[in-house]
Design brief:
The chain is an alpha/beta fold and 289 residues long. The protein is 45% helix and 14% strand. The chain is built from 13 helices and eight strands. Strands 1, 2, 3, 4, 5, 6, 7 and 8 form an eight-stranded mixed β-sheet that branches. β3 and β4 form a beta hairpin.
């Protein structure tokens, strides 16, 4: 395949992202590695393991620990303001329990971008792995920090939260960076659109210091739906290639049922296999090179 000017764009979606883990496992089995990868939230975590070429790590991390209180605890949310144990997820797991291959990741020539949201401005920020060095896991953590259930991450004068707040599917970023072949792994079925949140008033009460964040959350559904309209149009014109579940995944953003997680992972793998012939044609089209 001709991967020149091609990108891989990975949506988030909490533990629905294990569907993407299955897709990426198939890609790695086929030795398919894109030169440009951009991920949001759980998609950014998937991207890291894809670039470090650890095919099973996404599945292991997102199934083995879901019932471990160090990973996810409602008691910790009530007493400490965090549902997920961020130190456990971004320190203990990658450094001890399921080691992350930092060397392969750092030495890879893949351009790997993580999307976060600046809480003060409400705008997206894009960090490439080469510019972060040892700070990479801090940015990865920031990209997964959901409002109300996580604490923001401070980095270089910025206060950062989940990238999906400001740029859920960074197709425009990829195009602006010069990519003409854009492959998207989405975690919602075709036709899905977000609805306006009922918690906008509560958001302003919870985050009075961050009007930019509140504005971004209030308008998130508008930006998301416009992006999906753009993607659908691009897909009709054969300008992008998407892999996504045919129907809503039976997996919640916060899912603890391992059988459901395994099923979503397997579905991602099978959907990637069924799409592979069409993906190959898309990537070998010289008119987009």
């Amino acid at each position: 395949m001709d991967l020149k000017n091609s990108s891989l764009i990975l949506e988030g979606g909490g533990l629905r992202g294990i569907y993407t883990s299955g897709v990426l496992r198939f890609f790695m089995d086929q030795k398919l590695f894109f030169p440009y990868v951009i991920g949001v939230s759980m998609g950014a975590c998937n991207a890291a393991n894809y670039v470090s070429r650890q095919p099973e790590r996404n599945r292991i991390v997102n199934t083995r620990f879901v019932n471990d209180s160090r990973y996810l605890s409602y008691l910790r949310l009530l007493t400490g303001g965090e549902l997920f144990g961020m130190k456990f997820i971004f320190d203990t797991i990658p450094n001890s329990l399921v080691p992350f291959d930092y060397q392969t990741f750092r030495e890879s020539d893949v351009k790997c971008i993580t999307v976060v949201t600046d809480c003060k401005t409400g705008e997206p920020l894009y960090f490439e792995k080469g510019e972060l060095g040892e700070d990479y896991l801090s940015i990865l953590q920031a990209s997964t920090c959901l409002p109300f259930i996580s604490k923001p991450v401070q980095y270089n004068g910025h206060i950062l939260m989940d990238g999906g707040i400001s740029d859920s599917i960074p197709i425009h970023k990829s195009i602006n960076d010069g990519n003409r072949k854009n492959v998207l792994i989405l975690t919602q079925p075709k036709g899905y659109r977000k609805k306006n949140s009922e918690f906008n008033g509560f958001t302003r009460m919870r985050y009075p210091r961050f009007p930019g964040l509140c504005e971004a959350l209030a308008n998130r559904y508008i930006r998301y739906n416009k992006t999906m309209d753009f993607i659908d149009k691009q897909e009709q014109q054969d300008e992008v290639f998407t892999i996504r579940p045919i129907s809503a995944l039976p997996v919640g953003r916060i899912e603890r049922n391992k059988n459901k997680l395994y099923a979503a992972y397997d579905q991602g793998y099978l959907d990637a296999a069924e799409s592979y012939e069409g993906l190959s044609r898309y990537l070998t089209d010289v008119s987009r090179s």
